[in-house]
Design a protein that fits this description.
Blueprint: H1 2-19, E1 58-75, E2 83-103, E3 106-119, E4 138-139, E5 143-152, E6 156-165, E7 181-192, E8 195-204, E9 209-211, E10 214-216, E11 219-230, E12 234-243, E13 258-267, E14 273-282, E15 301-309
Antiparallel strand pairs: 1-2, 1-15, 2-3, 3-4, 3-5, 5-6, 6-7, 7-8, 8-11, 9-10, 11-12, 12-13, 13-14, 14-15
Amino acid sequence: MRRAGLISFVLGSALARGAAADCTASAGCVDAEPLWLSPSASRFSSISDTSTPAAGVLTGSATVAFRYRPAVLTVPAPSREGREVNLLRHGTDVSLGARLGLGNRVELTLLVPAGLYQRGSGIKGVTDQSAPAIPIASLHDPRLGFGVELGRSPVFGAKLRFEAKLPLGDQGALGGEQSVVASPALAFSARHHGFFAGAELGLRLRRPAEVFGTRVGSQAALSGGLGYELPKPRVALALEAYLLPSLVDSGARRYLPGEWLSSVKWAPSASAWWFGLGGGSALPVSGDAAGSRVAFGVPAFRGFVFVRYER
């Protein structure tokens, strides 16, 4: 009963905050981070592992990432090229993830992201060149969810997942949504000798928000990846990508966030700790949104390092 009451309180607070958010008509509350790192990822960064921990087993991860020019708009100006506004010129973030096995192939997941250091003009920089800069540090929307393992074999696996993104982040720092985002998904995996593959098909269901003429609303979430793991030394290489096709009319400008990521990770012999690094950038099909060269939120470059504890 206490757990149910606590969860109800957190969800209720998030809903109340989302309803009371101060979002303007031209620039609604939008999180300028379309990439969702998975708290249950093992071989990839954004694609969940299809297995679940045993009952009472807790695993965790910490990722520090750098994003360069993730939110840049081109607005009308006397020059033909217009004026570029760096809403978020660069940001260094940390994401702490955890998952707990509840038994019967069920897991509980949590991911808490935050901005450690970021620079940019923020939303107000579009209309006021003397507006104060974006906050240096900020809290982003956390995600709470669960997963149910549907099947397991030596080669294939599948898992049903659900996450709720709670609007508790700093909306003025482009780190928060205006409402709860519900995200059901199905994750699949395959493995043969050292080769492995993964895919995730899901939805991100949200209340639409206007971002300077572009309507950001519910999306399909499609991701896939391939990789290879060496047994000795324990090194794994992975390449993955995601696309977020809009399920609502995005207005005059096409809005299609997409990004590729590559990573390598290493673990000492017989250790549960993995250490890795990776990077990526926008896919060529990533659509123009609100005057930027790529979809709003997709960085020109992303680099990250991570540590994971897996049992």
